[in-house]
């Protein structure tokens, strides 16, 4: 009996030592920038294998409804993009679009009818779509997402989606500074090539795309440029906070044990290259718009059953944003913000909760849904309504 017990204890000790060694190796990998880039951006996972991104019909689009083209970043990277026509506008011009040759990859998008329908309509709305980590413009729930975005005004809302550097057919390697340049290139194309003024441009972002968008709108707010509005779905406060709270399948913590040791976690965080401080940027964005009396619209959406980015990041983002309005006491804590929200929160039962904070200049809206997961939510009616509310408030 004692021999059996001894064998069990020996096996347990070896297993524990092995697990600790593997975890230590994992922590060592975190300091490696190559590993970090692939862990944060997941750009190696295309998720559209054996499908040609230059043939949008493969992804369910109508003939010439989506135009594949590319644009250049300021540092010379080539970014692959789709311009997607709204369905009612497509129907109105279907015969003309059907007679055009199949788009394939278009070297001069300005020569296409779809582009002219965007550029020449003084009421056209353009949504700049910033997708999440991993995959391409055609992956997973992104195609249904484009349809949900246009659904509110199916004759007016165009979508421009693109792959960041290192993703899909785009060149380069993703970094925080690089993705910022990519976003700026897309905005500049929309304004200067497509001729769409900022007041008719709306940002939609999901997951990692919310970090890119928070940086972009703050960058342009510094130049006193404000867009029609911003919708952030499943955002995260910053990368260190995300890795501290992330759990595989919502159950197995990655750095949770280390996060409970603040000194050790703070030291480990110094090795994180791309921190994406979205919470801080959002506070700065709101503060600048308030100081300049610029009108802004911000909607933050999250599902409680999101296993990839915990939904608790969204109340943190809301708190940071509201703290920038100047309508709450300086130094208001998160818990104090939650107490204030309790008085204005609207409970919609199984539909979740809504909190809306208004100032003379802006509207900040938080929607916490009970269901929607991390990606499925992108094709749900909540997305269509979020876009419609922003456009109707202008």
UniProtKB/TrEMBL annotation:
Question: So which domain of life are we looking at?
Answer: Eukaryota
**Which InterPro entries did the record assign?**
AB_hydrolase_1, AB_hydrolase_fold
What would be one Pfam family of this protein? Abhydrolase_6
Q: Which residues form the AB hydrolase-1 domain?
A: 127-304
List the PANTHER family: ALPHA/BETA HYDROLASE DOMAIN-CONTAINING PROTEIN, PROTEIN ABHD13
Q: What is this protein called?
A: AB hydrolase-1 domain-containing protein
The source organism is Orbilia ellipsospora
- Could you read off the lineage of the organism from its UniProt record? Eukaryota, Fungi, Dikarya, Ascomycota, Pezizomycotina
């Amino acid at each position: 009996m004692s021999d059996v017990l001894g064998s069990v204890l020996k096996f347990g000790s070896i297993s524990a030592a092995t697990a600790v060694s593997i975890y230590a190796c994992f922590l060592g990998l975190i300091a490696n920038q190559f590993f970090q880039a692939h862990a944060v951006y997941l750009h190696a996972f295309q998720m559209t294998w054996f499908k040609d991104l230059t043939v949008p019909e493969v992804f369910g689009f109508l003939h010439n409804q989506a135009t594949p083209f590319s644009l250049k970043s300021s540092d010379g990277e080539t970014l692959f993009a789709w311009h997607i026509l709204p369905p009612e506008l497509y129907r109105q011009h279907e015969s003309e679009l059907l007679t055009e040759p199949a788009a394939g990859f278009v070297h001069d998008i300005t020569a296409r009818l779809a582009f002219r329908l965007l550029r020449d309509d003084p009421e056209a709305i353009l949504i700049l779509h910033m997708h999440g980590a991993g995959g391409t413009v055609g992956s997973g729930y992104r195609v249904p997402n484009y349809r949900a975005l246009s659904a509110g005004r199916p004759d007016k809302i165009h979508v421009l989606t693109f792959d960041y550097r290192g993703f899909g057919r785009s060149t380069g390697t993703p970094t925080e500074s690089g993705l910022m340049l990519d976003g700026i290139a897309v905005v500049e194309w929309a304004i200067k090539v497509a001729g769409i003024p900022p007041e008719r441009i709306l940002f939609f972002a999901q997951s990692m795309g919310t970090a890119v968008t928070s940086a972009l709108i703050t960058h342009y707010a510094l130049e006193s440029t404000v867009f029609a509005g911003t919708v952030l779905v499943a955002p995260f406060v910053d990368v260190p906070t995300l890795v501290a709270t992330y759990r595989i399948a919502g159950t197995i913590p990655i750095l949770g044990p280390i996060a409970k040791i603040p000194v050790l976690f703070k030291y480990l965080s110094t090795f994180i290259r791309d921190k994406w401080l979205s919470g801080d940027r959002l506070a700065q964005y709101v503060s600048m718009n308030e100081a300049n009396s610029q009108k802004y619209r911000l909607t933050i959406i999250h599902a409680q059953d999101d296993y990839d980015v915990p939904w608790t990041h969204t109340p943190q983002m809301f708190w940071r944003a509201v703290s920038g309005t100047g309508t709450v006491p300086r130094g208001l804590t998160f818990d104090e913000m939650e107490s204030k929200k309790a008085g204005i929160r609207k409970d919609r039962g199984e539909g979740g909760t809504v909190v809306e904070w208004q100032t003379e200049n802006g509207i900040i809206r938080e929607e916490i849904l009970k269901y929607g997961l991390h990606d499925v939510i992108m094709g749900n009616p909540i997305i269509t309504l979020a876009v419609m509310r922003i456009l109707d408030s202008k």
